[in-house]
Amino acid sequence: QVPLVESGGGLVQAGGSLRVSCVASGRTFSFFAMGWFRQAPGKEREFVAAIKWSGGIAYYADSVKGRFTISRDSAKNTVYLQMNSLKPEDTAVYYCAGRYSYSIGLILSNAPEYDSWGQGTQVTVSS
Question: For a tag site, which of 27, 64, 120, 125 has the least CB within 10 Å?
Answer without folding.
Answer: 27
